[in-house]
Amino acid sequence: MVAVWSGAVWAQPKLAVDRDVANMGEILYQLPSKVSFTLRNAGDEPLSIKEVIPSCGCTAVDWTREWIAPGAEGTITAVYDAKMLGVFQKDFEVYTNALEEPVYLHIQGRVVAKLSDYSGSFPVDLGNVRLNVNNIEFDNVNKGDRPMAELQIVNTGRKSYKPYLMHLPPYLSAEYYPEVLAGGRMGKILLTLDSEKLRQMGLTQSSIYLARELGDKVSDENEIVVSSVLLPDFSSLSVQEREMAPRMVLSADSVNLGEMGRKRKKSVTLTIQNTGRRNLEIRALQVFNKALSVELSDRNIGPGETEKLKITVSAKYLKTAKSRSRVLLITNDPARSKEIVTLNVGL
Question: Domains, the chain, ranges and CATH?
């Protein structure tokens, strides 16, 4: 990550960015493309992204609006409208409570009338059609939200094709633009999440399937994994209740396990400490793919106590996993109600 600091020595937030330049490569004319930057609070006080200002109206931006706890991550997402052919470079001013001056981020790429190679922008090959992704994530969802996600699609065949998503759960709806794709044409599918219909707090995952032809069947090949994380609501807590709340300290939120090699399983043990005044409750402990399993010694952690979290990776399921190797914790700590542990592991 690119670290940014202010030079002071007292307790403060510190912004670290995974990169300062995002190269979007070739993107198609008039097909808006999205890119994200990952931000991490490397300090010891909560970090706030106050504002993100793009250099022109051709780029729309969004960012994590909640306070980012020490050690936690947020995102800045940029969508370039691709309305002009040719090379582009756009800048963003990022204002936070970590620095008086803005931090500058950049996106660059080239808008083309026709892609020379679909594999870059549409890496998911389903035969007659290709997708940009087969894994969609709705993070940081609050009750009442209706976030949207975009699935980009190209018809690589010669015949017209009508996209259709099968096995949509009740909390998801889809719109198709256009409804029929001619040969060689590109389009998009807009997915809307109705958070009021989510049944549980924390992680909800579903598999939906893109029909490639009339009467198509479901399979691992045309599966799209949709994940959503519903956050607990602490908006009604008083100042006194927040002062008396538990406080979670996680020993690490990112672990590099290296290569699996010939090992069938690899494990890592983290610690969870409660430095607050009331019991810390781990209300949900979930994994994003079946290559992971977790064990926690106690989900109710008293003030001053520490418990162990063991995470195990299985090589058997790692190759076919569509979702990233991550573990989700939902807690009753108002400052860190959601924590994600990312495991970097290869075959």
Answer: 2-112 (2.60.40.10), 118-230 (2.60.40.10), 239-346 (2.60.40.10)
